[in-house]
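Possible regression after last week's pipeline update?

I re-ran a chain I had predicted before the update to compare outputs. Posting the input and the new output here so someone can diff against the archived version. Not blocking, just want to make sure nothing changed silently.
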Amino acid sequence: MKPALIDDASSLAPWSGCAFVPTMGALHEGHASLIRSAARTGRPVVVSIFVNPTQFGPSEDFARYPRTLDADLVTCAAAGAAAVFVPSVEAIYPRGLEAAREEAANLPLPAVATQPRLEDACRPGHFAGVVQVVTRLFELVRPAAAHFGEKDWQQLRVITDMVEMHPTRFDGLRIVPEPTVREDNGLAMSSRNRYLEPCQIEAARGLSRALQVACAAQHPGTAEALMHGTLEEHGLEVQYAVVRSARSLMPVQGFEAPTRGLIAAKLGNVRLIDTMALPIWR
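New output (post-update):
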């Protein structure tokens, strides 16, 4: 069934209590898996498509970010979405974009958005924009649950902590993490993969290979060294390759509690991220 296309926030009221999948479009099988998972809850699924300008830095690819609405609507329909919300910038930021940027700069953020020195260090201001737009979408859509992929692990932790910080504001909203979806070759699915040249795919696989190698290590320092070595062997420019607490994303001394390997690396002009849960060793 073709999903309802909504561009006016006033038309969202009937969808209150839905299962929500917020996206920036350029949908791929990873997004489709989120929609299918949300649909299995029995709630109607609302997908949002909005390329949020306040989470892009001055040197980042906002203008270049792919816009593929027609194809995205086909993906949403096939995966079981009941409605697709495609708001304008004015609908999300009625006071204007400049006012929105000022507001984002002053937002209180959970510690996981500012202390780990991962995405927060590489992309200053990014999580302020994420918190701002996700908060606004939650207020407009009023879902019962929102589904997010684990590949953007720090973003998932930021949003989870944001909701936990304001339980009455978000009225019992449940954040549902969904496993990373990978290509057959192990590459984590991402909208930015379409920027890769065919000759770069083998090098891009270095991220997932580095994480797999880290799973065999029994000390965080060893795991990090193995990840760095694997990434460099694949010709990747490493921004970070670390082992962190799965919850706080702060450094750990061992593998006694849940941890994640987290990587950000560049291949030419394409920035890739990936993450994986690492084994617990006692």
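Follow-up from reviewer: compared with the archived run. The radius of gyration is 19 Å. Marking as no regression found.
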